[in-house]
Amino acid sequence: MARAEKIKDATLRSGVEEAYGQLRAGDPSGAVATLADAFGDLLVRHPELLEFSTTVRGRAFPLVARWPAFGANLVLDPERAAPPRIEFVRQRFAVSEALTYYEFLVDLAVDQGL
Amino acid sequence: MKFGLFYELQLPKPPGAATWDPDAERRIYHEMLEQVELADKLGFDYVFEVEHHFLEEYSHSSAPELMMAALSQRTRNIRLGHGIVLTPPGYNHPARVAERLAALDILSDGRVEFGSGESSSDMELGGFGVDRSRKKAMWEEATREICTMMTQEPYQGFEGEFFSMPARNVVPKPLQKPHPPLWVAASRRETTMVAARLGMASLGFGFETPEELGDRSEEYWRLVREECFPIGHAINPGLAVLSTFMAAETDEEAVRRSADGPGFFAYSLGYYYSPLTGGSHQPGATNIYDRFNELPSEQRDGRGPLVAARLMSRDQIAAEEPEDEVQRALFRAARSGQAIGTTDTIRRNIKAYEHHHLDVLVLVAQCGDRKHEHIMESIERFGTEVLPEFKERHESEHRPWREKQLSGVDLPINSSI
Fold first, then answer.
1. What is the pTM of this model?
2. Are A2 and B226 in contact (CB < 8 Å)?
3. Closest residue of chain B to A71, computed from CA coordinates
4. Residue range A92-112, pLDDT digits in tens
5. I need a surface site. Which of B151, B183, B248, B265 has the fewest CB within 10 A?
6. CB of A57 less than 8 A from some CB of B
């Protein structure tokens, strides 16, 4: 069973599956755009994700801050006055970059039981 | 499970000193040659050596291809692993990487393992003008083309985003066909899964615990079977994990000899890879070992792997750990799968990796200011008292398990595992 199939949130799963289809069709840039949309939408619907943290080499980081910064970058307002958003500093992405975004989002959803 | 040794060529500065003893670099290079020669005689399967630049004290291994060339003439069987080559073109032109790999493969009679990666320290990225946000894309483009350069005759040339070159016959070609086995540096779970999808073995630089490995293994192998679109011309399915290593006659002696090695390894790694400290490093001036020694003991003692692996919180560790210093170190080693102790203790600790079907355990002996004679004794003890039984089970149990995992995979495979 593919790990993405374990995602319970139908909207998110649909976005992830669409992105994977784009990846297999040779469109990693399209896949990143789809994954960024799905991630942004998830953060709006589940703002509690912004409060979770993870530990990297002994230091705590906001969990969502591990969203890769390959050019579709997460922008968090430190005051939380504005909603989080994804800022695109480029439109072209490599397969490995798209795969990393994909794996991050699937892991986040499955690990958080979404 | 197979076994390797891992080298950063660490060289802490003497306490209070601005630089090293004039003989220090020559000494650690020649010690590594002796250590790997011994490991080869005892049946260790791999040596992996990093490529890092400008990371003084943390790693003095900037030209691993030269060390590997020397080792190719002093060893007979051990596989010579780049752990890893930095393939973004700003570090190394892809054609030069392909040429060096092939030449080394010829010199070693086909013993090269091609590990690749990007690094992420400001010292290296800034030193070579590599754009941090594009380094993964650079790695992918260059690694894909390096594989093609080693197989295509002549190489058809390439117009890419990060490098271009006209058609040329890149010679020599490697002895192993179509090219040496592919590995990628993976310190995050996502990268291990990317490795599976691209048909590469994952060289786990995160010191993953047996439990973390177990969590990754099932998905890794499923991806290899079902969702692999290879970056090269043959896949190398496999999982390797790093573990700290020191064997001695008693547990207490092993802990004493292990000293601050793993702690300094973790500290200096964090120092260079953190944007706060790594970016402000003063080349040729900072004494990182002094800074490490100034830390409170609880920050030097290696609880990091347990916390990082989310196996235990710092409070939980404190509540469960023995009070005695040595017993506490052994407790931590056991919980995180480290190979520190007597050979009996090590055997017990690392069996958990075997249980989770690990392919290669890569042992980190040379770190911090550990002593050469202690490392040699560790290699000797492990090679004679632990390694043989694991090797036997690798053939009798693990190899059939791998074949089962790969049933139905019709992609070409070149793997030494």
1. 0.93
2. yes
3. B133
4. 999 999 999 999 999 999 999
5. B151
6. yes
